[in-house]
């Protein structure tokens, strides 16, 4: 299966590339790369507007990708799938449509300490605009949500809970299904940030019960510049459109505009057709492998990685929840994380060293950054062995 990923077969600084930066972005299988060239070689056209063959093919490919996403995350209908640029744009869309419409002065928005900046800043901007209040759920030393505190924070003014399903800095898998049920008992809506979840285990939005689910294609072995917002059907009509322009309208006069049906209502302008097709191809690829198989393999690899890293003298893992994906954040005694990152890079090992756009989650530990190897299904035990060996030499140089 590693043969499906051309980029993995290269040398960096004379060493075989070890790609352990999957939390930042994932590599693309040949079938995804081919789907994009195929689209530009044979089908390229704008969608919906023209009555010629290529327009029909491009439209079918784009809408076909939407249906693949629908099935992949278990949505009830393809209408509930809105294409955006990525998770960041998805959260902004929800904050500026649903949020602007529903949140008033004194209302409350509940976030957790684990959130990525993409699921903090849009809510903060909205809170400032509306004079609403942000409430933040604390975490334990292991990096788990404290559910009693969460329940305590919810109240009659809570309008939305915005929570990540998997922490990108600590790897914690958050009990979002349970949290959604609790939020709904208080009449609040729930947005789940699935950016770090969808590539690691099967996701079913109907089972989760959430109102919004957002993720980025590029973290799911698909291209950059394409992402998804799932909007629960009952909200599709109620929520106003976001950006105005072509495609999102039914009829325009200078006096008044009527809007298209969802999901087009939320997709102003020419969308990223080719990369949506690439996302569809990535989903086909993952379905062939089976998300359940991926989950099982990665679980073993994460346990192996955790054990191996713990044998490195002076290494402290940050984020030790028993229920986690393969994000192995750590610090090394007396060695700045930037230095560790550089040393690993010089050995062909790609990891992220920094705050991972989740500063509050690290501030909880009094840290500014960590070194973060993050695993995907194409990683191996041998790669982890090499990582641990190199880390030992950094420690004792
Ligand atoms: N949320 C989480 C949990 C993430 O890991 C990321 C990407 N690091 C984002 C949101 C933002 O995704 P993007 O940059 O693709 O919009």
TrEMBL record:
SUPFAM superfamilies reported for this sequence: PLP-dependent transferases
PROSITE patterns, per the entry: AA_TRANSFER_CLASS_5
Keywords linked to the UniProt accession: Pyridoxal phosphate, Transferase
Coiled-coil regions, chain positions: none
Pfam families: Aminotran_5
EC numbers on record: 2.8.1.7
Segments forming domain Aminotransferase class V: 18-387
Catalysed reactions, as listed in the record: (sulfur carrier)-H + L-cysteine = (sulfur carrier)-SH + L-alanine
Required cofactor names: pyridoxal 5'-phosphate
NCBIfam families xref list: sufS
Cited PANTHER family: CYSTEINE DESULFURASE (PTHR43586), CYSTEINE DESULFURASE 1, CHLOROPLASTIC (PTHR43586:SF8)
Function: Catalyzes the removal of elemental sulfur and selenium atoms from L-cysteine, L-cystine, L-selenocysteine, and L-selenocystine to produce L-alanine.
Family of this protein: Belongs to the class-V pyridoxal-phosphate-dependent aminotransferase family. Csd subfamily.
Protein known as: Cysteine desulfurase
Species of the source: Laspinema olomoucense D3b
């Amino acid at each position: 299966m590693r043969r499906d990923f051309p980029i993995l077969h290269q040398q960096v600084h004379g060493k075989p590339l070890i790609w352990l930066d999957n939390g930042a972005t994932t590599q693309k299988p040949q079938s995804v790369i081919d789907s994009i060239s195929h689209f530009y070689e044979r089908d390229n056209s704008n969608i919906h507007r023209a009555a010629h063959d290529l327009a029909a093919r491009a439209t079918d490919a784009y809408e076909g990708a939407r249906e693949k996403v629908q099935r992949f995350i278990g949505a009830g209908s393809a209408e509930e799938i809105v294409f955006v640029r990525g998770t960041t744009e998805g959260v902004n869309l929800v904050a500026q449509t649903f949020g602007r419409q529903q949140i008033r002065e004194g209302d409350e928005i509940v976030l957790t300490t684990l959130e990525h900046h993409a699921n903090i800043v849009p809510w903060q901007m909205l809170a400032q605009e509306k004079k609403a209040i942000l409430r933040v759920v604390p975490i334990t030393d292991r990096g788990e949500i404290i559910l009693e505190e969460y329940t305590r924070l919810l109240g009659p003014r809570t309008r939305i809970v915005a929570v990540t399903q998997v922490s990108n800095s600590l790897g914690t898998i958050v009990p979002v299904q349970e949290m959604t049920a609790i939020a709904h008992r208080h009449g609040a809506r729930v947005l789940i940030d699935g950016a770090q979840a969808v590539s690691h285990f099967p996701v079913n939005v109907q089972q989760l019960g959430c109102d919004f689910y957002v993720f980025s294609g590029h973290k799911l072995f698909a291209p950059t510049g394409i992402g998804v917002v799932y909007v629960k059907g009952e909200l599709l009509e109620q929520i106003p459109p976001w950006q105005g322009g072509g495609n999102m309208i039914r009829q325009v006069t200078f006096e008044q505009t009527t809007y298209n049906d969802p999901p087009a209502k939320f997709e102003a302008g020419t969308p990223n057709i080719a990369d949506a097709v690439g996302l569809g191809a990535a989903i086909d690829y993952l379905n062939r492998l089976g998300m359940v198989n991926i989950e099982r393999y990665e679980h073993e690899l994460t346990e192996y990685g955790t054990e191996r890293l713990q044998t490195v003298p002076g290494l402290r893992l940050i984020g030790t929840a028993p229920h986690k994906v393969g994000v192995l954040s750590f610090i090394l005694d007396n060695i700045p994380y930037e230095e560790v990152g550089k040393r690993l890079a010089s050995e062909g090992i790609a990891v992220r060293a920094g705050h991972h756009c989740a500063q509050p989650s690290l501030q909880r530990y009094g840290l500014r950054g960590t070194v973060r190897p993050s695993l995907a299904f194409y990683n191996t035990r041998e790669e982890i062995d090499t990582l641990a060996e190199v880390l030992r030499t950094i420690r004792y140089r």
